[in-house]
Amino acid sequence: MPNVHVAHTQGWDTIPRLETQRLTLRPFTTDDISTLTRLANDRAVARTTTIPFPYTETHAREWIASHAPAAARREGLVWAITDRFTARLMGTIELRFRSPRHVGELGYWLGKAFWGRGYMTEAARAVLAYGFEQAGLYRIQAKHWHNNPASGRVMQKLGMTYEGTLRAAAARWGEYLDVLVYAILKPEWERAVKG
Ligand SMILES: CC(C)(COP(=O)(O)OP(=O)(O)OC[C@H]1O[C@@H](n2cnc3c(N)ncnc32)[C@H](O)[C@@H]1OP(=O)(O)O)[C@@H](O)C(=O)NCCC(=O)NCCS
Question: Can you give the residue range of the structural domain that contains 28?
Answer without folding.
Answer: 5-142
